[in-house]
Design goal:
Residues 37-121 form the Acylphosphatase-like domain. It catalyses: C-terminal L-cysteinyl-[HypE protein] + carbamoyl phosphate + ATP + H2O = C-terminal S-carboxamide-L-cysteinyl-[HypE protein] + AMP + phosphate + diphosphate + H(+); an acyl phosphate + H2O = a carboxylate + phosphate + H(+). The structure is a single chain. By secondary structure, the protein is an alpha/beta fold. The chain has four domains: 9-119, Alpha-Beta Plaits, CATH 3.30.70; 216-378, DHBP synthase; 409-517 and 758-777, 2-Layer Sandwich (Nucleotidyltransferase, domain 5), CATH 3.30.420; 559-751, ATPase, nucleotide binding domain (Nucleotidyltransferase, domain 5). The chain is built from 23 helices and 32 strands. Strands 9-16-10-11-15-12-14-13-17-18 form a ten-stranded mixed beta sheet, sandwiched between helices. Strands 3-7-4-6-5-8 form a six-stranded mixed beta sheet, with helices on one face. The protein has a six-stranded mixed beta sheet with strand order 19-22-21-20-23-24, with helices on both faces. Strand 10 and strand 11 (247-252) form a beta hairpin. Helix 18 packs across helix 19 (643-653) and helix 19 packs across helix 21. The longest helix is centred in the C-terminal third of the chain and has 25 residues, at 694-718. The chain is globular. It starts with 8 loop residues before the first strand and ends with a helix.
Amino acid sequence: MSGRKFPKAVCAGIAKTTTEYHCLGTFSDHSNLMSFGFTIRIRGQVQGVGFRPFVYQLALDFGAAGTVQNDAEGVLIYIYCKEIDAFLRALETRCPPLAQIDTIETHPIDMKHFTGFEILESGNAGAETRVTPDAATCVDCVDEITTDGRRRGYAFTNCTNCGPRFTILKNLPYDRAKTSMAHFEMCPACAAEYADPSDRRFHAQPIACPNCGPKLAMSPASDDPLRDAVRRLRAGEIVAIKGLGGFHIACDATNADAVAKLRERKRRPTKPFALMGSLSCIRRYASVSPDETARLQDPAAPIVLLHSEGTALPESIAPGFHELGWMLPYTPLHHLLLRDVGRPLVMTSGNLSGEPQVIGNEEAAQKLGDIADAILLHDRDIVRRLDDSVERETAHGPMILRRARGRVPGTLQLPPGFEDAPDVVAYGAHLKSAICLTKNGQALLSHHLGDLDDPLTWDEFVKADADYAALFDHAPEAVACDLHPDYRSSRHASDTGLPCIEVQHHHAHLASCLAENMWPRDGGRVAGIILDGLGLCDDGTVWGGEVLIGDYQEFERYAWLDQAHLPGGDAANREPWRNLLARLLKADLDPAAHDVLADKPIGLLQQAMDAGVNAPLSSSAGRLFDAMAAALGFDGAQSFEGEAAMQLEAWARKAPAQEAGGSYGLRVPLEGGAIIDTDLWAEVMHDRDAGVSIEAMAMRFHTGVAQSFAAVARHVVKTGRAQAVALSGGCFQNALLLDLMIEALGDVPVLLQTKVPANDGGLALGQALVAMARLEAK
């Protein structure tokens, strides 16, 4: 009898097997095998999540005999069960909340004689199974810290359903001795819970209580650190707080003076601050849909972007923006702080501007001492530096903007056709850097690492590369990187000594979207609308607004935003007005340029562009958005990446209904070529002179860009040159643009990114898939 697979889910119209049962015959065939027992092999996120005690209890419920243990490949069960069909289905449908099953494989065997069911010690060490991400405090543990009992008020309460995992793990297998909890010796009460299969703390490696676990401390010293932190926050002071993956800097979000003081000390003039509050608290300040509620309550506990509504918070939390980033408390310490402060808290990354988040106690004193009035510490080491994940819900599903704590090291199944592909490691881009490893038919995309221009971030990148390779016993046959030779990630790839596959930036974006959607390797070509900042091509020009036609192995550039100069080179990435100048001059709108940009050095920059000096040509959609923001009043330099485009989206969302119609036209070449934007700028300047509101103009710009690119991609699919449209690139973090693009594409199949960032944070996944396809094609 041959093995069979049972598909479980369908994503974006493409069949995708997320759980597979490999059985000798169908489930109903087992009735003639009751003289045999079975081995059941379970692969996926099944260690450190309470899976063995779950199997133990399930076996008792079914009157089964046998054993269950962890080993290098996942969980292995030997079982004799008269109702094996029902038992197999219950393994999936009733499994623990943090478990994620990839495959269940069963085989009949001659069974030993068992008198009951037993949990065995872990088998051989190995890295063939997943490590569980950190998980937000579960309801049971929240109840425990707020009611009478030995863990009342204890800031490090956890169980198998919640608590730290990846941030405390040093080596596999996931046992206490290989975590930063190793030096905390369990007291008799905790040891009894740890050894009891019926207890929710059975083999919970971070198990602790006030008698034997980590403890809080305050700098300056305090007899009651928690109460002192609460007092300081309520008084308008700034407190640095040690969390799971690093320090936060917190203040009372309702206190405008405290928020202003934090901005001044952190030298962060406009970038929005993240907020933390209970769900009831969040609903006082934001609209929260059922999907957004589910996202907030996910065990990953990400920051979720929510529309402001109801009671107003100080404007300085997110100057000019219609959305605020909220997260629920995800550690017992957070729950206790918020309960006693009684107000929402700003909870921003504890770092100096541009540097990685602080994780060590001494490091916090050194780097955060000038920002925070006090530092709330504890004595459990953070092994891995992880920022908070940032996400949003859209009409088309979730959107991941930053993939970090709570999401990593979760894996993605490789699409059909890559089962036997060689293992590779890909090193991503230069900004929003991340690393991707492939192994055993899965891709592991690392946490957000940051901007590699920063020396400390570069150090973290190198550490992460070695860390992931050691932790997952990864021995790649080749490496992949961006085509840009000056990216630090590209130089790192070439220094490995392994075969190096260079992948064009926007091809990697396309492949990342295909991979996430489980597009088969032989699924045919796709039209990719790739809109982002900058990406080097092998012709030496800088791309950023393309319609590509391709697959994992190769691509062609079908249409593109007409190139414009980047006056001042890198300065054009920081100062949007430079991009506006280039486009107005290119559209022969010199008088408008001198009117709108009267205080800028127009003559000098025009000479530089004419001479081609420090003014490279680019088709960047990101710089087009920057130019439009400058035309509508965004002046000066961006204080953080994407600020101008975010402001443009915020304006567009406020467009009065009576003015919101229409669009600015771009000349669209349906049969391929340059998408010309000169007409757009003439229309923009006309509306500006006519007194049209900036909100309506921003909306018309978004609509015009969406309709123009969609028209080209739709034509490619309708004429049979592609099977679907894939949307990727950092511009698709703009939920309004995404809405308008999908509307304009109409009835053609569309592939979106909902699990992997569409920005450069997802680039390494695409690089890895391109590399594997090319290696196998040789």
